Each structure stands twice: as structure tokens, then as C-alpha cells.
Amino acid sequence: MAKLMITRRGSKWQYRFYVGKVDGKQKFISKSGFPTQKEAQSAGTEALYEFESKGVRLKNTNISVSDFCDLWIENQAVFNYKRNTINNYIRIIESRIKPVLGFYKLTDINTLAIQNFINDIKKEGLGKNRTSEILKVLSVMLNYAVDIKYIKTNPCKDVKLPKFSSPENKRYIITKSDINKILYRFKDSRFYIPILIGYYTGFRIGEVFGLTWEDVDFENKTLTVNKALSVEDGGRVFIDTPKTEKSNRTIKVSDFLIQELKKEEIKQKENKLFYGEYYFLQYVDEKQDAASNIVKNIISIQANIPIDKPKINFICIDENGSLTTQNSFKYASRVIRKDMGIKFNFHSLRHTHATKLIEAGANIKEVQLRLGHSSIKTTLDVYTKHTDEAEAELVNLFDNIL
Question: What positions does the domain Core-binding (CB) occupy (predicted)?
Fold first, then answer.
């Protein structure tokens, strides 16, 4: 740290400090003309601090980490992230960050405290992806603190993610035999169509449940993704935009899927007549959130109740018209895993679709477009994982021959 020198020049006072060599000569920053030594000391201290902060003049704040989290949500998150993402970040902040780090003054939080925080999370048994996500949320907030000059640097910068012994969230490949068993098990239930669509298109779960009959082109045999269905913790259902810009897409689908969708459409029309006024219909209720964004909430209500809202015709519904969502599907996932003994989550339908295409020799770029990946790297990761597993199988096969 440079030394601040206060000297008297005639009747006035001056501050001066060394800043290094420029063109081989010693360089100082100085200012004179202060009527008192105290004023020169005060101004010099501030100038030296500003220089050593690389020109960053920090605000004097005693805000806690907990209060700063709230400030970040109100001033940044609601304006820059999708609703689902905001809800996820709030869960992380309330359940993880605030209970451990919330009492710190923002200016006192340091790399060691955050490193210990992350290490303790790992010791609790939380997986690599979730631990990484918690660190990411904290880092994004503290970057904002740097931007608004509440702190000089982000203490998350030098935090290291602990090593994790085994991969998590394994992406399961569903065999043809298993998918046939699954489809047979749910043939007459509300889960048959979403499973079928997921398997034959590779759509994300929100994209599948967000499909409406207007998104189906029976003549050209295509399905279009232009929205996604999302569910908040409290059960509120709303329409969101797809995950990325490239997620908006139209894809060709098989004759079999088209025929099954035609049967489903006819069945729904018959059910609507059968249930009559007790059949459930869905409507869009538009609201404005804190950031002035339009939020499209979904209302499900019986046909005999008048409502002045635009109607929306979802494909994935129950026999009585009630909406099927990601929350509803948790039951099907449990049945598949526990009762049927098949390793499964909805994303495995998407991963299986991608893997089968790659196995068949499909062009990687075409697979990327079909899946709506924003980057071809994501698609290549699927390809790499597939080839790694295939190579391991070949080695095992050869070992068995010997």
C-alpha cells in the first residue's frame, strides 16, 4: 500500500503519494491548496483509496447479505429472468444463502466464508449441479454488488467447487422394450399422450404440456413449439416462453404419433359431450408483474361457469378436461420407477430421442435444431456420452469373449 504524505507548502497543505514508475521516472499523485492539515489528510486518504480501488469509489453501506439478496431480486432478477428462474433463485436464496450467510455485512463477506459455505453444502450430500447452481446465484448477486459499487471485488471469484466422486442426474436411455411396457401401462390414462409426445419428439417437459391443438398440423405432420407450461411451488400454472430463442421450432413427426393424436382429439370431443357442463375448460388470465411483464396465468374451470377470458385448448388433459401438468406427471414417474422398476424421469424421453437419432446416423446439426438446443455443443455432449458408453460396451463384450 502506498504511503500518504502530508506536507505544508507556505500557508497551505498538500497531500502526496507514490504510484509507480512512468517512463523510468517515479510518479506521484498530489494536490495542494488545503487550508488545514486535517482537510489535506482527509482528501488524501480518499484519493489514495480511490486509486488503490482502481478508480472504484465504494458506497458507504452497512447492508446485510440478507437484505442485499432482497434488493437484488427487486432491482435485477424480476427484470432480467424468466418467472420460473426467479422462483428457483428465490428458493435457493431463502433455503440456502440467507440461513448461513445472511447475517454477514455485505462488505465483510469474503472468499473463505463462501468456500466454507460451499464445502458444507457438499458435505450435506447435495449434488454437484445443485451446489454449482447455488454458487452461481450467489456470484451473480455479488457481481451486481460490484457493479453498483457496494463492494470492490466479487469474493466468489476464487471459490473452488469441491470434487464430486460420481456423476449425478444420470440420463437414462429407455429401451424399446421398456417404452412399450410404459406405454401399455398408461394406455388408457391421461399420461399416455405426454409420454408418447416426449418419446417421439424429444420435447422438454414444459414444451409437451404447453402444446395446444393449434400447434398440430395434421396435414403436414408437424408439431410446433412456441410456448411452455410452467408450475410454481404454490401450484399456480402459467404459460411461459420456451427456454431459448432456438426452442421455438416446428418439427416433422411420425405417422404413428399423428394417428394417436387424431384419436386423442376425437376422444376429447366425445368426453366433452359426455361431461357436458361439468367438463373443465382452460382460460388465459393475463396479469402484469412487478417488472411490467405480462404473465399468462391458466385458469381451469367447469364449462357451466361463465368467464370472460380467452380459451386455450391444451392437448394434455384428463378425461373430464382438467389440465395435466408437470406436477400431475410426478405420479406417473413414481409408478414407472417404483412399481415397474424402470429407471426413468421425463427428461430421459428427450435424451433417448436424441440418442436414437444419433445412433441412426442423423446429422448433428439437424438433431440440434430438432431438440431446440441453443448451442450445438449441448447436442455434441449427448453424442460424446453415447460414444463413450458404446465404447465401454464394446470393451465389456470383448472381455466376455476371452
Answer: 63-146
Domain match, 230 and 341 both:
yes
| Ramachandran region, residue 152 (left: φ > 0; alpha: ψ -120 to 50; beta: rest) | alpha
Place of cell 457496494: 150
DSSP notation for 288-328: E-TTS-EEEEEEEEETTS---S-EE-BSSB-TTSPBP-HHH
Kindly state the percentage of the chain with pLDDT values over 90.
67
- The domain tally of the chain equals 3
Q: Give the Cα separation of 36 and 266 in Å (integer).
A: 91
Which residue segment(s) compose the domain that 337 sits in? Answer: 176-353
pLDDT at 402: 46
Q: Which position has the higher pLDDT, 113 or 1?
A: 113
122 is written with which cell numbers? 457438499
> pLDDT tens across 43-85, in order?
888 888 777 766 655 666 789 999 999 999 988 998 888 888 8
Query: Given a cut of 90, is residue 233 above it in pLDDT?
Result: no
Q: Does 218 share its domain with 284? A: yes
Which pLDDT does position 383 carry in this prediction?
Answer: 63
